[in-house]
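2024-03-11 09:14:02 DEBUG pipeline.ingest accepted 1 chain
2024-03-11 09:14:02 DEBUG pipeline.ingest length=292
2024-03-11 09:14:03 DEBUG pipeline.predict start
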Amino acid sequence: MNVQSTAFLLICTLCWLVRPVLAAEPMLVKYLGNNDSLVSEDYYLALMTAALKATESSYGAYQLVYTQEPLSSERKHELLVAGEKMNVDRLVGFPNQKGAREGLIRVAVPVLNGFMGYRILLIRKEDQPRFRSITTLEELTQLPMGFGKGWEGHVYKHNGFSVAEPLTMDSLLKMLAGKRYFFVPLSVIEIDDHYEIEGARVERLTPEKNLLIYMPLPVYFYVSPEYPVLAERLTAGLMYIKESGQMEAIFKAHFGARLHRLRLSERTLIELVNPNDDGSLGAPNHALLREF
């Protein structure tokens, strides 16, 4: 544990000791899931539950309310700022307090061990031989790619890729199958073995077998400004379960089998520069890949 982490944990511990336990009403935690997300919400719910449970003796009882509703990111931001229908969300990217993060309280503990930034290419099965010969960023940027609108397309453009950005996942897959571009990079915790277009399974779309792209890309919880004590509690709880190893255990329980199947440690790693990187994550720890 570094000095900064030790100091922060000590502060959180002192807060627990002096804060009176409120037994009357449980702390209400309202999380609204994203139906468009490719990542199972179960992981984030498990993390929040563990963090809330770890702080029960200091902050009192809690009630975690989870709902699903298809909403635009703009509408979710409005609801999160208001804090009535939802008071916690997860957002991808560095802590820029503008746009979707403006006015929110960031829980400053990354929750995905950096794995949102590891990407595998979804390709047409017949193109695998072409990718087998690629080993460098320069070679890969010669092939046009597709990516979802509003995702991290700007990072790929910054690194020299030609990027098409359809509005929906379905159109993204249709254009890949229709040879409008050569690949779609998806996070290792998102990519599936099989895909469907309009309900029909498309056998020719498959994860590429040899390459692994990396960009620094954290995922944080953000809390409504109306609930500062919830932000304090989640910060303390997440720090505790991270230092105790419980966060890593939850991560492996949810994603371990998938990551082993993708053979991450055997792939050629190609690193990208994220122009938004503020240095807060430090140097990447690719040693974690050896476990998969």
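2024-03-11 09:14:41 DEBUG pipeline.report The chain has two domains: 3-113+217-260, 115-215+262-291.
2024-03-11 09:14:41 DEBUG pipeline.predict end
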